[in-house]
Amino acid sequence: MQRAYHLDETDKRKLVFLYKHSGIERRYSVLDDFSKQDGWSFIPSEKNDAFPSMEKRMDLYNAYAPSLSLSAIENCIDGIIDAKEITHLITVSCTGMSAPGLDLLLAEKLGLPPNIFRTSINFMGCYAAIHGLKFAKLICDSTPNANVLIVATELCTLHFQKEYNIDNAASSLLFGDGSAAVLVSNKIKSQRSVELHSFYSQVSYEGKADMAWELSSQGFKMKLSSYVPDLIEKDIIQLIEKAAVDAGIKSESINYWCLHPGGRKILDNIQSQLELPDEALSFSRKVLKEYGNMSSPSVLFVLKEMLQQIQKDDVVFGAAFGPGLTMETFIAKG
Question: Quick check: is 206 in a domain?
Fold first, then answer.
């Protein structure tokens, strides 16, 4: 990143400090690794060369997102269900869009019938997978024998920006690429499963300018203020209490915390505010450490990590945060 942005020695040192305190050890990208060659084939090595256009970035999204999504789907349904038993398909993404889109490409590759119920959740950011779970539960509650497949795929690194500023630096150090698939069914139960119980969301309007995601001719641009962790910390207790009341439970009954690893400071602030022990956020910190923030798939990565340990009647509280500032939650039971 120092080389890509052509930084001076002062900014290089600042960047090293930020990386060392990020809580992230590795991230993944569909792009070549900048550090292993003179420059990305995607990002020019010369300072004054033009960066890729939106069209180029979307071409790469369409080239890589389907195969990554299919891998996630295969890992999800293998040994559980045949693809032809899927009744509903929901795709989630905020890093690439086209029509025909990812949903149609996947339906065709999976051999799903041409009348498959499909929909896409686009441009909601990091909380979108929880929105997908909410939609899937609504389908299952109203449709007998529904098998709803959700796949959240984000190629965040396609949107590396040329200008060096605090927003672009934060985005470039936090975000990576990833895909997660989840099956929501009202007739299949596996050993690695939880029952979706309720959902609750609210918006902190005072933070609407602190987290934003906008289209430009040079890719999608992130606005990510340093105040976001403080805004989440301020609202998290009230959010949990309202979600618990809505679910008809007491917040003290929560056994597992499935929190979106949006960044180390977000997790630190939540842990401090809720006075949680270190192990309570160990799953979120593990995902952040090993993958970075992948936007929408991240909270599903956290859920997968804890599925093996959740016991019958355990209560799981999940939350993710995105533009708005939107805070989306779910409560599930073992």
Answer: yes
Q: Which domain holds residue 240?
A: 195-333
What's the half-sphere exposure (Cβ side, CA atoms, 13 Å) at 155? 22
Return the amino acid letter for 28: Y
Domain harbouring 274, CATH code: 3.40.47.10
- What is the C-alpha to C-alpha distance for residues 148 and 151, in angstroms, rounded to an integer? 10
- 3-class DSSP assignment, residue 287: helix
**One digit per residue, pLDDT tens: the chain, 334 residues?**
888 888 999 999 999 999 999 999 999 999 887 666 655 677 777 778 888 899 999 999 999 999 999 999 999 999 999 999 999 999 999 999 888 899 999 999 999 999 999 999 999 999 999 999 999 999 999 999 999 999 999 999 999 888 888 888 888 899 999 999 999 999 887 878 999 999 999 998 887 777 777 888 888 888 777 778 888 999 999 999 999 999 999 999 999 999 999 999 999 999 999 999 999 999 999 999 999 999 999 999 999 999 989 999 999 999 999 888 899 999 999 9
**Could you give the 3-state DSSP secondary structure of residue 154?**
strand
- Which of 245, 270, 250, 237 shows the shortest CA–CA distance to 315? 250
Residue 260 lies in a domain: yes
Helix 282-291 to helix 264-274 angle (10° resolution) is 170
